[in-house]
Amino acid sequence: MNIFRLAGDMTHLASVLVLLLKIHTIKSCAGISLKTQELYALVFATRYLDLFTDYISLYNTLMKLIFLVSSFSIVWYIRHHKIVRRSYDKDQDTFRHYFLVLPCFLLALVINEKFTVKEIMWTFSLYLEAVAILPQLVLLQRTRNIDNLTGQYVFLLGAYRSLYILNWIYRYFTEPHYVHWITWISGLVQTLLYADFFYYYFQSWKNNVKLELPA
Amino acid sequence: KELPQGHDEL
């Protein structure tokens, strides 16, 4: 494991913890898209099917379990927690899941490495992760005014994606036969989706003002 | 054991 991969995993973990912390302590999920969180839960559930078949390392297994448990807990909090669910703004969070899930699934059926259930689910999870942030970005655009924790959550997710790209570049030059087009292209698409957000995030940080997205 | 591409990543 290289430093970029580890830093990427840690920012990913931090993003989830920031979100859980926000929900747990403030008892509010204002500004958080339930649609995006449900898509992430689906991403992890379909990607980590190999928990049952392959053992890679203790680190790998533990991280997978953490991402599974945390993503489903976040969904549970927003949907069922008696206080948190009241702060969920259903009318603003209108993105339809199947607009993203269906094309990703069809694409995974056509473009994959191997036509097996596990491999197709894994590929589907990569495609879906690439676009799962869209409902969240749409919600941010709509509400415009973003609280610090939500801004940090999206920033950490973007940092995680950027670090994974550096990890792939590093692995490409240090490991033989490390060529993974499906992972790279979906990862690149995912990172590019954050570019616009990053631009406004850094501007607000530079000018020391509250983050606001243009309508 | 040889893993399929990128499967050791999260």
From TrEMBL, chain A:
Membrane topology qualifier: Multi-pass membrane protein
Compartments (UniProt record): Endoplasmic reticulum membrane
Name assigned to this protein: ER lumen protein-retaining receptor
Keywords: Endoplasmic reticulum, ER-Golgi transport, Membrane, Protein transport, Receptor, Transmembrane, Transmembrane helix, Transport
Record GO biological process: protein retention in ER lumen; protein transport; vesicle-mediated transport
A Pfam family: ER_lumen_recept
PROSITE patterns: ER_LUMEN_RECEPTOR_1, ER_LUMEN_RECEPTOR_2
KW Transport (keyword) present: yes
Similarity section: Belongs to the ERD2 family.
GO MF annotations in UniProt: ER retention sequence binding
Main location: endoplasmic reticulum
Cellular component, GO annotation: endoplasmic reticulum membrane
InterPro entries for this protein: ER_ret_rcpt
Transmembrane portions of the chain: 55-78, 98-115, 121-140, 152-170, 182-202
